[in-house]
């Protein structure tokens, strides 16, 4: 059962990720990235990180990608098809680097010593919450400052000057 | 047949490579940000899988922080795109050459 769910998530996730980075229409890009992130959430759940699976759907699919969709519709920028569109050398170099990232990553993984899977630890909200307000309290508080700074920065950037 | 955390790491590597391709090959600013999101998610997934191998929860707390920082980064990045679009009427990164030379 777990195997079936995992491979379904992998197939759907990879296909929708390819669509997300290759389709011409930006709305299709954003919506298929939602599907990919949902598959990542399924993987979190299979790994025993239930809290992160919920947070992934709430934060990414619920907030970040809605922000993306909002900006896509706000800008409504047509995909430019300029005369310099085919740049064979740059495209080939980019594709080569992307494939190298994948192949290199897998090759690196082949070399590492795999630690035997330990006993299942439950990543439910209670356990994560105890860590957040315990050893990681300072980081947890500081992240709110980071978010506030980002919010103020975004407001300043889009403010119209009169 | 069993699914080990290593399978999830390989899934994450594949997603990371696809995200890299998106960042390198696309020219629209929004598509580049989408590729970045995909790469961040792949890194998060690998982190959770490695944490599962070691049987600790700290990796999941780190992933939570990465999510928050990614949200902040996307907010600023999209605000930059909106500001650039207002000035240049385009989000094609090839045309953003005012900082060249």
What does this structure look like?
Chain A is mainly alpha-helical and 162 residues long. Chain A folds into two domains: 1-77, Up-down Bundle (Four Helix Bundle (Hemerythrin (Met), subunit A)); 124-162. Chain A has helices spanning 2-22, 26-46, 50-75, 88-111, 125-132, 137-158. In chain A, helix 1 runs antiparallel to helix 2 and helix 2 runs antiparallel to helix 3 (50-75). Chain A is globular. By secondary structure, chain B is an all-alpha fold. Chain B has one domain (5-90): Helix Hairpins. Chain B has three helices and no strands. Chain B has helices at 5-25, 29-54, 58-88. In chain B, helix 2 (29-54) packs antiparallel against helix 3. Chain B is elongated and about 55 Å long. Chain B starts with a helix and ends in a 13-residue tail after the last helix. Chains A and B meet through helix 1, helix 2, helix 3, helix 4 and helix 5 of A and helix 1, helix 2 and helix 3 of B.
Summary tags:
heterodimer, A: 162 residues, Four Helix Bundle (Hemerythrin (Met), subunit A), 6 helices, globular, B: 101 residues, mainly alpha, Helix Hairpins
Concise account of the structure shown:
The complex is a heterodimer of chains A (162) and B (101). With 162 residues, chain A is mostly helical. Chain A contains 6 helices and no strands.
Oligomer: heterodimer
Query: How many DSSP E strands of chain B?
Result: 0
CATH superfamily membership of the largest domain in chain A, which one? NADH-ubiquinone/plastoquinone oxidoreductase chain 6, subunit NuoJ
Which percent range describes the beta-strand content of chain A? under 5%
Topology:
The complex is a heterodimer of chains A (162) and B (101).
Chain A: H1 2-22, H2 26-46, H3 50-75, H4 88-111, H5 125-132, H6 137-158
Chain B: H1 5-25, H2 29-54, H3 58-88
Helix pairs in contact in B: 1-2, 2-3
């Amino acid at each position: 059962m777990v195997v079936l769910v995992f491979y379904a998530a992998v197939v759907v996730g990879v296909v929708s990720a390819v669509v997300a980075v290759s389709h011409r229409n930006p709305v299709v890009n954003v919506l298929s990235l939602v599907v990919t992130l949902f598959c990542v959430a399924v993987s979190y759940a299979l790994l025993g990180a239930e809290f992160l699976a919920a947070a992934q759907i709430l934060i990414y699919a619920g907030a970040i990608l809605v922000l993306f969709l909002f900006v896509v519709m706000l800008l409504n920028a047509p995909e430019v098809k300029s005369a310099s569109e085919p740049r064979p050398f740059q495209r080939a170099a980019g594709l080569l680097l992307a494939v190298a990232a994948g192949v290199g990553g897998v090759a690196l993984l082949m070399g590492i010593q795999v630690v035997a899977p330990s006993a299942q630890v439950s990543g439910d909200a209670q356990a994560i919450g105890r860590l957040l307000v315990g050893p990681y309290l300072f980081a947890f508080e500081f992240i709110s400052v980071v978010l506030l700074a980002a919010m103020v920065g975004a407001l300043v950037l889009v403010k119209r000057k009169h | 047949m069993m699914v080990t955390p290593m399978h999830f790491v390989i899934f994450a590597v594949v997603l990371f490579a696809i995200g890299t391709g998106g960042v390198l090959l696309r020219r629209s600013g929004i598509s580049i940000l989408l590729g970045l999101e995909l790469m961040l998610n792949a890194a998060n997934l690998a982190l959770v899988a490695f944490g599962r191998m070691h049987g600790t929860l700290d990796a999941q707390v780190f992933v939570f922080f990465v999510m928050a920082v990614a949200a902040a980064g996307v907010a600023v990045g999209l605000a930059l795109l909106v500001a650039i679009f207002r000035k240049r009427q385009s989000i094609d990164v090839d045309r953003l050459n005012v900082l060249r030379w």
